[in-house]
């Protein structure tokens, strides 16, 4: 199942003291920062998650697979993603990660419930 921006916003609301509007603003600001850096040709490294990298592709000849006609492909930039070792580990051993996440969530929930006014 694909996670959507809206479901991420809902999870931020559920796990923090931020309301829906603040969570949506946070998400939009975060994505805007990433978009701007990538558009400027800069890489984006998110420690523990991975690295978005902008690569330049030179112009080249390609082939239409349906007609076998040669076509000229223009130079372009593409965004690639390389997962961090941490993300790879969490993906390959999800039980361990989910157990740690449940403990972390319980600690956060306990801290929220014991806040002083």
What does this structure look like?
This protein is an alpha+beta fold and 117 residues long. It has three domains: 1-40; 42-83, HU Protein, Chain A (Irregular); 84-117. The chain has four helices and five strands, in the order H-H-E-E-E-E-E-H-H. It has helices at residues 5-15, 20-39, 85-92, 94-113; strands at residues 44-46, 50-57, 60-63, 70-73, 76-83. A three-stranded antiparallel beta sheet has the order 1-2-5. Helix 1 (5-15) packs across helix 2 (20-39) and helix 3 (85-92) packs across helix 4 (94-113). It is elongated and about 65 Å long. The model has no long low-confidence stretch (mean pLDDT 90).
CATH fold field value of the largest domain = HU Protein, Chain A
Average pLDDT works out at 90
Largest sheet: 3 strands, antiparallel
Number of helices: 4
The neighbouring-strand order within the major sheet is 1-2-5
Helix content: 40-55%
CATH domain class name of the largest domain: Few Secondary Structures
Structural class: alpha+beta
Our estimate of the beta-strand percent is 15-25%
Number of DSSP strands?
Answer: 5
**CA-CA gap between termini:** 39 Å
Oligomer: single chain
The CATH superfamily of the largest domain appears as IHF-like DNA-binding proteins
Second rung of CATH, namely the architecture of the largest domain: Irregular
Uncertain regions spanning at least 5 consecutive residues = none
Global Rg: 21 Å
Task: Encode the helix/strand succession as letters.
Answer: HHEEEEEHH
Number of domains: 3
How would you sum up the global shape?
elongated
């Amino acid at each position: 199942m694909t996670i959507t921006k809206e479901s991420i916003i809902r999870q931020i609301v559920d796990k923090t003291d931020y309301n829906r509007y603040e969570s949506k603003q946070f998400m939009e600001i975060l994505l805007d920062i990433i978009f701007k850096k990538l558009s400027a040709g800069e890489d984006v490294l998110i420690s523990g998650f991975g690295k978005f990298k902008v690569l330049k592709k030179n112009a080249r000849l390609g082939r239409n697979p349906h007609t076998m006609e040669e076509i000229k492909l223009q130079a372009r930039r593409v965004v690639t993603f390389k997962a961090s070792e941490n993300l790879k580990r969490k993906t390959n051993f999800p039980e361990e990660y989910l157990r740690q996440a449940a403990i972390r969530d319980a600690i956060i929930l306990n801290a929220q419930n014991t806040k002083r006014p």
